[in-house]
Amino acid sequence: MLRRKPTRLELKLDDIEEFESIRKDLETRKKQKEDVEGVGTSDGEGAAGLSSDPKSREQMINDRIGYKPQPKSNNRTSQFGNFEF
């Protein structure tokens, strides 16, 4: 295998200006999106996402993915069916 010296990358003024413009554009989009989400969540989901309550966080995740857990009953018929002994 042949070894070669690492290629040197030079940063030009045009590259820096392009990076800064793209970064500012992304920041403004992100800020607008946060403003829209902040106004749109008047039912309290935004505040629940910031809370440290694990049940509300788990509930938010379940709602987001569409999972609706069914409660488990602990009687024998639910575990073994309707067997007659």
Automatic annotation (TrEMBL):
<protein>
    <recommendedName>
        <fullName>Anaphase-promoting complex subunit CDC26</fullName>
    </recommendedName>
</protein>
<dbReference type="GO" id="GO:0031145">
    <property type="term" value="P:anaphase-promoting complex-dependent catabolic process"/>
</dbReference>
<dbReference type="InterPro" id="IPR018860">
    <property type="entry name" value="APC_suCDC26"/>
</dbReference>
<feature type="region of interest" description="Disordered">
    <location>
        <begin position="25"/>
        <end position="85"/>
    </location>
</feature>
<dbReference type="GO" id="GO:0141198">
    <property type="term" value="P:protein branched polyubiquitination"/>
</dbReference>
<dbReference type="GO" id="GO:0007346">
    <property type="term" value="P:regulation of mitotic cell cycle"/>
</dbReference>
<keyword id="KW-0131">Cell cycle</keyword>
<comment type="similarity">
    <text>Belongs to the CDC26 family.</text>
</comment>
<feature type="compositionally biased region" description="Polar residues">
    <location>
        <begin position="71"/>
        <end position="85"/>
    </location>
</feature>
<dbReference type="GO" id="GO:0005680">
    <property type="term" value="C:anaphase-promoting complex"/>
</dbReference>
<comment type="function">
    <text>Component of the anaphase promoting complex/cyclosome (APC/C), a cell cycle-regulated E3 ubiquitin ligase that controls progression through mitosis and the G1 phase of the cell cycle. The APC/C complex acts by mediating ubiquitination and subsequent degradation of target proteins: it mainly mediates the formation of 'Lys-11'-linked polyubiquitin chains and, to a lower extent, the formation of 'Lys-48'- and 'Lys-63'-linked polyubiquitin chains. The APC/C complex catalyzes assembly of branched 'Lys-11'-/'Lys-48'-linked branched ubiquitin chains on target proteins.</text>
</comment>
<keyword id="KW-0175">Coiled coil</keyword>
<dbReference type="Pfam" id="PF10471">
    <property type="entry name" value="ANAPC_CDC26"/>
</dbReference>
<keyword id="KW-0539">Nucleus</keyword>
<keyword id="KW-0833">Ubl conjugation pathway</keyword>
<keyword id="KW-0498">Mitosis</keyword>
<dbReference type="GO" id="GO:0051301">
    <property type="term" value="P:cell division"/>
</dbReference>
<comment type="pathway">
    <text>Protein modification; protein ubiquitination.</text>
</comment>
<keyword id="KW-0132">Cell division</keyword>
<dbReference type="GO" id="GO:0070936">
    <property type="term" value="P:protein K48-linked ubiquitination"/>
</dbReference>
<feature type="compositionally biased region" description="Basic and acidic residues">
    <location>
        <begin position="25"/>
        <end position="36"/>
    </location>
</feature>
<dbReference type="GO" id="GO:0070979">
    <property type="term" value="P:protein K11-linked ubiquitination"/>
</dbReference>
